[in-house]
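Hey, resending since the last one bounced:
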Amino acid sequence: MGFWYYAYPGGTEFNGQAPFSANCSNGFVTPSGFCNVVKRDLSFSEVFAKSTYSVTPDVTAGANFFYSPSWLNAGAFGVYAAGTVKLDFTTVWLPKDWKGYLSGELGRYWFGVTDAFYAVPAFPNGVKYPDYSTWNVGLGLIYKQITIDLRYYDTTLSPAECNVITSDHTATFSPAAITAANPSGLVSIWCGPAYIAKISVDTTIP
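The structure tokens again:
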């Protein structure tokens, strides 16, 4: 179990008030008459719990749980639960001093309702953030203290839902994306599939 605090200092508030173009996170007002807004301070706290179980010497299964009372300081609670699996193939395929693994995670996010800052006319008390599933699968290679991880990520969020949850400053307009929860009609590609390469170094002192 543990506790995280995510600090995002130095942000800029976009509240959608006139002049709209200067107060919209995406920088313009859409034909629908709305735009993205976002708070200056997105800092938030989160508690978590993780567990693992060795199925065999080379296969490990795990479970993760995270909870925030105000995810991204939006006023909406955020709950994330996931299952993981990891296959260690060090003893099978790799030479001395090398380690390797295949791993994956399947998770689900549940959210509450934001505070009134993010309200729209249809929801004057706040917007219900969309729940969604997410997953990743990847390959890792370890040489002494250096780890190289190549991973594929994706979610079930539509571009319109992605815009609601991110207030993306690069969002673009699509008439088909206008809904009660997304009246601006803005869409974001931030939540789509992505390939991520990560290099990390373990500096733990024995």
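The chain has one domain: 43-201.

Sorry for the duplicate.
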